[in-house]
Every structure is written in structure tokens, then in C-alpha cells.
Amino acid sequence: MQTQIFKITDLEADKDKLKKAADILANGGLVAIPTETVYGLAADFLNEEAVKAIFQAKGRPSDNPLIVHLADVKDAEKYASELPETFYKLAERFCPGPLTMIVPKKECVPTATSGGLDTVALRFPSHPVAREIIRLCGKGLAAPSANRSGSPSPTEAEHCINDMFGRIDAVVDGGSCTIGVESTVVSLVGGKVRVLRPGAVTPEQIAEVTGEAEVDRAVTNKMNDNEQAASPGMKYKHYAPSCKVVIVCADDDGYRRFINEKAEDNAYALCFEEDTAHINKHYVVLGREEDELSQAQALFASLRKLDELGAEIAYARCPSQEGVGLAVYNRLLRAAAFRTIDA
Ligand code: AMP
Ligand code: MG
User: Fold this and answer.
1) pLDDT > 80? residue 225
2) Residue ranges around ligand 1 (CB below 6 Å)
3) 3-class DSSP state of 109
4) 4-219: which CATH number, 3.30.300.30, 3.40.190.10, 3.90.1640.10, 3.90.870.10?
């Protein structure tokens, strides 16, 4: 398959390219598109064949449901059989934006999209390019991250091209993603508000609106083999580079001493900018220490960078679990296959 690349610098000037991408989607094709979180691999979510092609292109297990991206909160009623008051309250505060809400689905949502569940995940992206493409094609878009299943998510068009060239119809290049980690996923099913995946919208912010928000145990803990996943995606290998990653739980001095004195000679530090002047090993920077958003923005590209550099083992700083830091920690834990050490 020949993959077309559409570079977008201006919504008005590049209208023809956006229209081409939208036409491919309207006709059942697959297009990687930029969103404010990560790049998504989009297809018409009502077209079962197109949805199946997403799973195939990514190598994604078919029971891992897809998030449906819509232009307008009003469209939710067409696909949800029930919308609790919390849906409207959260939508008013956070949509469009990096929040995905899980609600009971209507019959019209294909089983392929919902991974066989009777619920559907809805999101209203804020990225102007994503919004324009949804508007032009007149379809809702199922759009999981546009990477090969299991590998770090794409935050640049180049990452999508590396993973998906020849496997999908087109990549729309809209520059770097501003958030860098996937949306917050919150389940509103059964009268509860439960965060299944942390993102830029924090559990504290959700609780301010809904009065309470439970955080699923799987956000920070490895699931047991016999445990049923509230969010099927949580049980799979995720975000992992080929390089072995180990999270080092320590303060500044402890981390730097570990890197300088204990880490293997060929080891890489996956460290904060502030660490770089104090270590004697190769390093890749994972944002700034007190700036969780900078860590979110850098995370996936830094994991890909380790592989580009041929790193075999990397010791990562442990992000704080405050604010969007919880999302960084959640992704890094999985990238590290839950390997942590105290130093
Ligand atoms: P991705 O598309 O890779 O960003 O992953 C979407 C995440 O949302 C996965 O972890 C899914 O398991 C989760 N998800 C999507 N739909 C549902 C749903 N109906 N119920 C529970 N989790 C869902
Ligand atoms: Mg993904």
C-alpha cells in the first residue's frame, strides 16, 4: 500500500490536503491524524471493515476497544443509550479536550469498535486539524494511537511513518502533539465515576466536577493474570521500546549516584534536564523535574530515541504522581514492564 503524507501548516491554505484525508476516511480508509494527546490511527467507527483494518494495521488484540472521536458533544446522544448527568457536567468543563468518557452504547455502534463490550468510549478532541477532518468527512472516527501495538505511542508524524508506512492510506502531519500522553479515560457506567487511565485531565479535576472520582487499581499496579480488566487495554504490554527500561525510585542525589556508580557502563540515563550536568553516562532527557507536562510531552519520543541510539538498558527517573505526572508514571511503569528499584 502506498502511504500518502499530507503536511498541514495552515487550515485554510492546506484545505485541499485536509479534504483528501477526509475523503479517504469517508471511503473506509485508514489515516493517521494529529490530536492534542498523541497521533491517532483513524477510521470511520461505524464501518466495521474499516475498524477491523485498524486492528490489523496495529496488530492490536481485537478485544481492546477503540475510542470514538466526535466533533460535537451533542452527537453523543446518537451513539450512547444513556448519558448520565456527570457526562454533561464533565463535557461542559473539559470538552473539547483530552477526556474520554465511557457510557452504555447504542446498537448502532459495531462490536468491532467496542471490543465486544456493551459500552462505548467517547472523546471530543480539541486539535484543530482533527476537528476539521472529522467535520469534512462527516463521520465519527475510531482512533487508537497510530503505532504498532505494544510500542511507544506516536507524538510526531515521523513516529507514525516509522511504524505504519505501507500499512495505512495516509499520514496527516500536523506537528508535535502538545500533551504527549493519551486522554484520561473515565468510566461513567453504573452511576460511578472511575478513572481507568490517567491523562492530562486529572482525577482531582474530575472530582471537582463530579464530587468524587475513584482511580482504578490497575493505573499504578500490575494486574494479576486472573484479574478482570475494567479497561481491556490495561492487561496488555504497552508503550515499550526494545530497550529494557528500569525505573529508579530515589531523590536527585540517590539517582545520580546510582547512575554514576552502579549502572552498567553502557547504560543510559532517562533523566530530567537538571540531572544532565551531574551524570557520567549517556542520557536521554525526559523533561524537567518540576514540570510534569514537559515530561508528558517528552516521554514517548524519549523512549523511541533510546531505540534509535541502540540503547540496551536505561534507568529512568521516577516521575512524581502529581497532576499529569500520574499519567507519565502510568505509561513509564508499563514501558518498564513494572521493573522498579529503590536506590
Ligand atoms: P488507545 O485507543 O490505545 O488510546 O486505548 C484506548 C483505551 O481505552 C484502552 O485502554 C481501552 O481498553 C479503553 N477503552 C476503550 N473503550 C472502552 C470501554 N468501552 N470500556 C473500557 N475501556 C475502554
Ligand atoms: Mg495506544
Assistant:
1) no
2) 64-67, 102, 114, 117, 119-121, 144-145, 182, 185, 196-197, 231-234
3) coil
4) 3.90.870.10
